[in-house]
Design goal:
Rossmann fold; four-stranded mixed beta sheet; 322 residues; single chain; 2 domains; 11 strands; 43% helix; N-(1-d-carboxylethyl)-l-norvaline Dehydrogenase, domain 2; globular; alpha/beta; 15% strand
Amino acid sequence: MRYVILGAGAIGCVIGGRLFEAGHDVVIVARGAHLSALAGEGLELRDPERTVKLPVATASVPAEVGFRTGDVALLATKTQHTEALLIDLEASAPPETTVVCAQNGVENERLALRRFTNVQAMCVIMPATHLEPGVVEVPSSPLTGLLDLGRYPAGLDDMSEQVAADLNGAGFNSIPDRNVMARKYLKLLSNLGNALQAACGTRPDDPAAAELWRLAQEEGSRCLAAAGIEVADPDLDAERRAALSQRPVGDHDLSHGSSWQSLARGTGNIEADWLNGEIVLLGRSHGIATPVNELLRATVNRMARERIAPGSMAAGDLLSQL
């Protein structure tokens, strides 16, 4: 079974790299300087224990992959790029291709299911960083990450079991979960802080940031409850997360999340519409005010458009705007 990684950022490259190390057939679809580095020098994967160079096969677009029956397309893009990627994938891959959504938010699976019958939802608990072409860093070792998955919208099948088995053999902990979307909604609540971190940086002693974080999560919880959406037990989730042991990779600070990294790389776009914006959408659909999530969504979108550096905003100034 071949794994085609679509979205060669931190998450996609770590998953693809570890599967390749474990002996699986892997192709990473990338672009630009990152593609050139991967094709020329291989994938440099760093963790607290070691650095490896992996000569993983690459392609620039799905059409170059030469999809065949039995391939697994693993999506690891930000949600704002998923629709365009799925259009290309549909033109290149058989309709029965299994699509695994290893992404934040809860919209990617719905987008994939419009075009592909076999969709797996994956809840990714794995801090990782990609700021340099050809290089990704993961601070978790010896266990690389938690990658539970199940068929979307619910249930399990043979592919759920097979992918989980392959991941477990590649340094991850993966549990087939017939209700994995409940885990993804719980993670959505934690991801509401991504925009706050991207805007204001990591300042754990900042009372204004703590208040914004509390209010954003409260809005999220109210909206999910109003919509009747099941959310996983946070205590059980904390037990799973406790299995991850995190340490620095060299002297690098790997505490910054994916939204912070988007601003740091100057990509011009950010994922907030599908994280904080998901709560805003639910709030508007169910008559619940969501001023904090709307403020965070709008703020980091402006920062992305104007190429404003992460951490440039003061949490107190944002709080005063409410």
